[in-house]
Amino acid sequence: MKDEGNHGRVKGKANGRATGGTSGRKHAKLHYCDIAQCEGICCSDGAFLAAGEEAMIHRVVRANPAHFAYLPKDYIVDGDWEGNTGRKTAVVSYKYRERPAHFADTRCCFAEADGKCGLQTLAVKEGVHKWKWKPKGCWLFPLGIGEDGKLEAPPRTRREDPNNIGKHYPGFSVFTPCGKHSDKGKVWWIALKEERAEALKYLAEP
Q1: Among residues 89, 90, 177, which one has the least CA distance to residue 133?
Q2: Fewest CB atoms within 10 Å of the CB: 5, 46, 67, 114?
Q3: Distances, alpha carbon 139 to alpha carbons 22, 91, 93, in Å
Q4: Which of 158, 182, 156, 195 is nearest to 31 (CA)?
Q5: Are 14 and 153 in contact (CB under 8 A)?
Q6: What is the Rg, in whole angstroms, of the alpha carbon atoms belonging to the chain?
Q7: pLDDT tens for each residue of 49-78
Q8: Is 196 strand, coil or helix?
Q9: Distance, CA of 21 to CA of 25 (rounded, Å)
Q10: Is the distance from CB of 171 to CB of 37 less than 8 angstroms?
Q11: CA 87 to CA 50: how far, in whole Å?
Q12: Contact criterion met (CB below 8 Å) for 8 and 47
C-alpha cells in the first residue's frame, strides 16, 4: 500500500488540488505546528510506510542504537485500518491531555518524550535535511498526494476530510491542531510553505 500523503490512511479523492484549481471550495487556514500544545497527536496512529521506507528506517535504527534505545523491539509492524493493510510504525500507549473521542491514547513509537520524532531529531543532529529519514506521509501532513499523483490541499471541513468514513470515525486531519481550519490561521500554502516545496520537489523526481 502506498499513500504517502495521508499519514498512514488510505483515502478517497479530495475535492480540490494544491497544484491547480480549487473546485470552488474555500481554502483551509492553519496554525503552525506547536508540539508542546498538541503533543504530536497527528502521530497517534503511527504511519503506514511507502515503498523503501521500511528498509531505510531499519538501516537508520541499526546504525544509531543509542539514539533509538527507547524503541520497542518490533517498531515496524503489520497494520490494518478499515481493511487497508500494509507495514507501519508501531504505536505505544500515551495519555493525551486532550484528544478527539475517536482518537486512541497511543502514539507512534518513534516519538520521543516531548513528542518530537526521533527520526527527525537524529537528522538534525547529523546535519542532514530534517526529513531525510522521516516517512513521507508524516512530513507531508496535512497535505496529501492523490491517486493522480498530484498534491492535494488540506481539507477545510469534515465533509472534505478524506478520512471521514462515518459517525464512528468522522475524520482525522480536521481534528488535529495543525490540520484544523482556523479563521485566525494562515492560508495553507503559507502555513505549509516548507512542506509544499518539498512535496513538489518529490513529485518532480523521475
Answers
A1: 89
A2: 114
A3: 23, 18, 22
A4: 182
A5: yes
A6: 16
A7: 999 999 999 999 999 999 999 999 999 999
A8: helix
A9: 9
A10: no
A11: 8
A12: yes
Residue for cell digits 546504525?
63
Q: Which residue has the cell 503506514?
A: 48
Residue appearing with cell numbers 528506517:
57
The per-residue pLDDT for range 89-135, each reduced to its tens digit, is 999 999 999 999 999 999 999 999 999 999 999 999 999 999 999 99
Helix, strand, coil distribution of the chain in percent, nearest 5: 25, 15, 60
CA distance 167 to 189: 30
Task: Write the single-letter amino acid at 171.
Answer: G
DSSP labels, 3-58? -TTTTT------SS-SSS--TTPPPPEEPPP-HHHHTTGGGTT--B--TTHHHHHH
Distances (CA, A) of 158 to 45, 49, 165: 19, 25, 10
Task: Tell me how long the chain is.
Answer: 206
- Compute the distance between CA of residue 99 and CA of residue 180 in angstroms, rounded to an integer: 13
Q: How confident is the model at residue 24 (pLDDT cuts 50, 70, 90)?
A: low
Q: Which of 78, 70, 14 is nearest to 46 (CA)?
A: 78
Strand duo 29-30 + 186-187: pairing: antiparallel
What the block records as the C-alpha cell of 75 is 517498531
Whether this prediction's pTM lies above 0.70 is answered by: yes
d(CA 66, CA 202): 31
Say which residue, 6 or 91, is predicted with more confidence: 91
Place of cell 480536521: 174
